[in-house]
Write a structure and sequence with these properties.
Layout (H helix, E strand, L loop, with lengths): L1 E5 L5 E5 L2 H10 L5 E5 L9 E5 L2 E4 L2 H22 L12 H16 L18
Antiparallel strand pairs: 1-2, 1-3, 4-5
């Protein structure tokens, strides 16, 4: 396996099964902005994100966790936006259903503070 990366920034842009395929991409960009490096043996379990001094550099656990938090917040925001209609004055729901939706939305707003394991998340369930 080979990573193709941007020389100036060191950012890895893609990986290929063969050196030949990596060379095809590099040759298609003749400005000399890309190069390749053989992937480390643990590339399937470690998230390498850039190349520095011809060495693949991995994300730190802190960076990985921050990305997970961003994804969690984005999903929560989408779920809240998707349920905004339940808070409108002309919402056709019964008072009982409105209360269920209010509880759900409160759980979503409080959700990030209740997460203890970023890899095993149980999301609040929307009312039926």
């Amino acid at each position: 396996m080979y990573y193709v990366y941007f020389i100036e920034s060191g950012s890895i842009c893609t990986k290929f099964e063969t050196e030949e395929l990596a060379n095809e991409l590099i040759n298609a960009n003749p400005d000399g902005v890309m190069d390749k490096i053989e992937t480390p043996e643990d590339h399937e379990t470690v998230n390498y994100i850039w190349v520095k001094n011809n060495i693949c550099v991995a994300e730190t656990q802190e960076e990985i966790n921050e990305e997970k938090w961003i994804e969690i917040r984005q999903k929560r925001t989408k779920l809240l936006l998707d349920s905004d209609w339940t808070d409108l004055p002309n919402c056709p729901l019964s008072n009982e259903k409105k209360t269920e939706w209010q509880s759900y939305r409160t759980a979503l707003r409080n959700f990030p503070s209740s997460i203890s394991d970023l890899d095993n998340i149980t999301w609040p369930v929307a009312p039926s």
